[in-house]
Amino acid sequence: MRHRETIVWGEEILLSGRTLRMHAEGVSMFPRICPGDTLEIRPIAGAKAELGDVVVFCRGGGLVAHRVIAREGLGEHARLVTKGDFLEGSDPEFDCSRVLGRVVRIERNGRIVGLESPPRRALARFLGPLAVRRHLLRLGLLVMRRTRRTHRPRSAPPGDHGAGEEKAR
Fold it and tell me: What dotted CATH number matches 4-147?
């Protein structure tokens, strides 16, 4: 969301306790969230944000959806550190009161992925901070597979035409 009116509107919806649906922009949460995905965001008090949750907060005039990777303190005085799964570094630590909501569903090409089930939340807490490494590992495996497919055996030395082949005259 880029336009200031839209940001204020989204912020007001969440602060009033209603669910917000918005389209994602950017690649900071790739591959979990891609540009154009529709996010369903439920309002939560920042004090209830847990490790692994994808929370929405205001930063730099926009709404940002990043994963909670660290939490210091308890209750309303907690401070959070978030990070986009695809980004190298984390966001600066901030007060949990800045959290507007938590992403609970992602819709992509008609397919809906819910993030609220206990198994998914547990998996997010465990794997979320490793997302960049996982993505790079997948990319590395893909490159290795393609390299193997395109690898051609070395040609035979001059004058050696291989077994079963006759020399052309």
Answer: 2.10.109.10
DSSP 157: P
Q: What is the pLDDT of residues 133-152, one digit of tens each?
A: 555 555 555 566 665 555 44
Contact 81, 68 (CB under 8 A): yes
DSSP state of 67: E
Peptide bond into 31 cis (omega under 30): yes
CA dist list (Å): 52 to 4, 27, 31, 65, 126: 28, 18, 15, 12, 7
- Those residues whose C-beta lies under 8 Å from the C-beta of residue 124, and which sit 6 or more positions away, are 52, 53, 54, 67, 115
Query: Whole-prediction pTM value?
Result: 0.70
Domain ranges of the chain: 4-147
Q: Cβ atoms within 10 A of the Cβ of 124, count?
A: 20
d(CA 66, CA 28): 8
Per-residue confidence at 159, pLDDT binned at 50, 70, 90? Answer: low
CA distance 20 to 156: 65
